[in-house]
Structure formats: structure tokens, C-alpha cells
Amino acid sequence: MATLEIHDLHVSVEAEGGPREILRGVDLTVKQGETHAIMGPNGSGKSTLAYSLAGHPKYQVTGGTVTLDGEDVLAMSVDERARAGVFLAMQYPVEVPGVSVSNFLRTSATAIRGEAPKLRTWVKEVKEAMERLSIDPAFAERNVNEGFSGGEKKRHEILQLELLKPRIAILDETDSGLDVDALRVVSEGVNRVRETGEVGTLLITHYTRILRYIKPDQVHVFAAGRIAESGGPELADKLEEEGYEAYVKGGATSE
Amino acid sequence: MAAETIPAGSTTDGAIQVGQPTDARLGAIASYDVADFPVPHGREEDWRFTPLERLRGLHDGTAEATGGVRVEVSAPEGVTVETVDRTDPRLGKAGKPVDRVAAQAYSSFEKASVVSVAKETVLTEPVRISVHGEGGTAYGHQVVEVGAFAEAVVVIDHTGDATLAANVEYLIGDGAKLTVVSIQDWDDTAVHAAQHTALVGRDATFKSVVVTFGGDLVRLHPRVVYGAPGGEAELYGLYFTDNGQHQEHRLFIDHDTPHCRSNVAYKGALQGKDAHAVWIGDVLIRAAAEGTDTYELNRNLVLTDGARVDSVPNLEIETGEIVGAGHASATGRFEDEQLFYLMARGIPADEARRLVVRGFFAELVQQIGIPELEERLIAKIEAELEASVA
Q1: How many beta-carbon contacts under 8 Å exist across A and B?
Q2: Do B347 and A111 make contact, defined as CB atoms within 8 angstroms?
Q3: What domains can be seen in chain A, in order of their start residue?
Q4: Percent of chain B beyond pLDDT 90?
Q5: Are A79 and B346 in contact (CB < 8 Å)?
Q6: Which residues are within 8 A (CB) of B167 and not within 5 positions of it... i.e. 6 or more apart?
Q7: What is the mean pLDDT of chain B?
């Protein structure tokens, strides 16, 4: 069973006047089949955690460990992490002009699976996955994320999640900017992947709204670069009513 | 290359300059005689991007012809291939040389090659012209004449090593269709400077595809003039500029006739230290050219540090009675965020780079519309990328 273990993770970014520490000792264990919601105010370091796990070069790990089934994730390059089963659905997916969605998906699936998917079954697989997410088939021939609306970008991220079948899925504010219909479609996609029991999910969100559709096993409140409180789903209800104020006071970073 | 050889006005380290439009006609000497042009020194608008010391004397009269460039023409039935003297009346009809190197070529060539397609002849096979350098210095002259309502595709392949200055003329009869593909697949030691001048007849269509991969220095000057209304010109270009290469494409479209169209799309990728691409797109819409429709585009993709691009679109309009006129120039870097996104989906860095470059060129390659050539170009682009990864 895949287990992602984050221990005492410290991460800095380059800023004017030297490195600035964003993550200040994060401890978290996510097992296959579990869903963890990470909630917190803006600037608490949620997205930094997501990008650090995926290996974005902007973020410097200054301390701590991240392992996937005992393997040192921090020693892996970005593509190695993805092939090891770590998937990041990005808050702001990047436009890649000139690369069609169909070409991108197939290249990616080939890399992740270690061999090119059989063309006939692959075409069907993509088509069905797109239908489930209400993605217009014409998208296959469009350039990756180019001219996509916010909702289309997010659906495209979840399409990749469904096709690439990671062991650990990190969803970075996948709910932001979505209307209710899009949120429902995206959540259904995430739930289909969760229901396989094969993925551990780290659901990063600012709002409790998405938790009506995706039920977490555990909720963690992120503040000032670390987990300030952990609990069951009831913790989300408390946040819904009281907001983050109790966590922001005296300690949160400004960004 | 030492720092002092970087031409004034250029930018370095993968930076980008998009120039301000200047008057397309400024300094426009046009003459068949090299003596009418002063020797350029590098500060002239026409020459400021070109490293003159790498022209091997083509610009200052010191490059003596030694031969060593083999030209072979293979043509299907319906095509006449001739080697003619300087006095042949078909020479120089498309237009005069407009810079000293082109005038030097015009003043120095001994024999010209004329390829003619009789009127109303529709070729089903391309005419193939192979220009192969064997290390010498040569001045060339090529005429391609397509009669009224004829249709032809001509592929000119440049390979090997040479120092070559040349003029190529395209005479396109009324209602005719000519597609010319000029491939600069030189060895990395070659120097090639040429003016391509197309005279487009009434309701005729001219499509030019310029593909530059090789050479130490390649400087091409495709020009279009319209002999009568209704002409259409499509100019496509693709270049892949590597380590130390200077590849310069200077286009001029002279809309002096009503109701003509032009469309220009050039795309280039650059990689490696001192790779330098220059694109100048001059379009002039003269007062008489009512109903003109023109668009020009240049896109560059900088893959590594140390490469530089100078891209100068220049549109000058003397009449408001036109259908449309526009230009676009953009130079982008293969960005770290794009690389991260692709790698975060398991795709290794070199494969990600290939994916993006293939994608960058794909649309242009499709527009060319010659399937056999498309495959060759894609293979060549792959090879260029492999070389960079290795």
C-alpha cells in the first residue's frame, strides 16, 4: 500500500533580501485510499506544500524528508516523481502552445505507464474519460490549456488524474474559480478515482464548499507554514462557521 | 565569437529585440551594377545585423569565383531547362539587385540557368534543382519562368560547403501558380547570400517556402513585386539556428498594384551559444495599391541561453483604401513553467523540449501543403533537436 510520509518539511523561496521560509516543519502521512483535506487561509503555505512535493525548482527544501513507500521523493527529479506516482493537479495549469491535448495525454501516459498505450484502447479510454467530465471532444485537438476557461483547465487536470492513475494525488485549489456545475463535474471525477481505493488524495482548498462533494477522512488546518490542527470531517464544519481567524492571529505569514 | 563582433543594435543572451519600423524605401538603391553600391561597413540599416567579416569578401569585391558549386536540374516533361549567357533577355526581368552582394552576384556570374514551364502546363511532379557546394566560391543566377495558367512546384536544395552569392528570379505568368521550396541544408561552414525576386502576374499565385537549417552564415532576401492586379503571395519560412550560426531572412513585399494579397509566416527556433537569427519583414503599401490585403508574422522560440533574435516587422501604408494590413512578431522562451508542467506529467526534460518544438513548427509545416516535404522537415527538426540533446 502506497504511503506518502512528510516529516518536518522546511521549504524556502528566494525573495528580496534572501531566502524566506514558507514551510516550517510539516508532518503528514497520506496512505493509499485516504483523503486528507488541507485547509487554510491565503498565504499559509498550502500551495507551497503542493509544489514542493511535485518538485518545482522555485522551492528550496531546507530540511525534513518526504518518502513514498520509503523512497526518497526529494532526491527525484520532477518527472521521476510523476513516474513514481505523485500527481499534482495545478491551481494554474500552464499553457503549452503548439502541443495538442491528445498528443500531450498520450506522451504523458506513455511516460507514466512505461510503454505506449495501445492506440485503439487508448482512443476509447480518452474519449470515455472526456465524456464523463463533459469535455468537448474538440478539445483533444486544441493546444494544452491554450485559451481554456478556468473551468476547462480544471477539468483537463482531472482528466489527466483519471488517465494517469497516480498513487498520490495532490489537488491544489482545484475548486477555485469553479461554478457549482463545474465543481460537481470535477468532484465526481475525483471521486471516481478515489473509489478505486488506489489513490491517496491530498485535497488543498481554501473553502469548505468542495468538501460537500468530496468527503475527507481527515482535515488539517494549515497556518503559518505548518499544520496547526488536525481532526475529522467535523473540523471542516467548525471552519465553515468560524473561519480561519483563530489560526491567523499572531503567526501567519503575510502571503 | 568575440564580444566585439556582435553587431550594433543586437541583443545577447537569449534576449530579444523587436525593432521600430523604419521607412522601407530608405537607402533603396537598386542596380545591376555592383559599382553603384558602396562597400558596406556594418552600420547601414541593411547590414547592421550581419557579421560582415564572415561574408568572406562577398560584400567588398575580394571574393573571387573559383567554381566548385554544382547545379543539377531534374525536371519532368513539359519543362525546358537551359544554361544561358548573360545577354539572355529573360535575365533581370523580375527586378534589380538591391544590395551590394546581390549586385556583385549579378555582375559576376558567367552562365545562368533558366527553367521554363510553358503556358497552361500543369506539372504533376516537382522540378528539382540541386545546388551542391564543393568548397569553392561562386556567383549564381537562376530564373524560373512559369507561363500563363501553368502550375509548378520547384524544390531548390542547397547542400555541401560553398561561398555563394546568387540571384533567383521567379517570373509568374497571368493566372499561374508557382510554389518554390528553397532548402538551405548547407554544411555548417557554408556562406550563402541570395536575393529571391518574384514578379507575380495578374491573378497569379506565388508560394515560397524557405527552410534554413545549415550554414555558417545565410542571408536571404525574398522580395515580391506584383506586375498586375489580383496577385497573391504566400511566404513561409522555417529556420533552426544552432551554435554560432547566423541566419538572416529579410523580406520585402512591394504592394504597388491594386487588389493583391500577401501573407508571410516565418518561424524559427534557436539553440546554443551565439546562435543568431534575424528576421526583417518589410511591407510597403503604395498609394496606388487599393484593396491590398497583407499580413506578416514572425515567431521565434529560444530554447537555450546565449542565442539571440532580432525581429523587425515594418509595415508602411500610403493608402487607407485597403482590405487589411497587419503584422505580429513575438519571441518566446521555452519557459521553465512549461517544462515543469510537462515534467510533472512524467515527461523527461529532453522529450518535453521535443514536444514543444515539434508543436511550435507543426502548424507552419502543415501550411506548406507538400506531404513529402512535411515529412522531411519534421525529420530534420528532430535531428536538430537530437544534436542539441546529445
Answers
A1: 81
A2: yes
A3: 3-88+162-248 (3.40.50.300)
A4: 78
A5: yes
A6: B97, B102, B105, B106, B109, B140, B141, B142, B194, B195, B196, B197
A7: 90
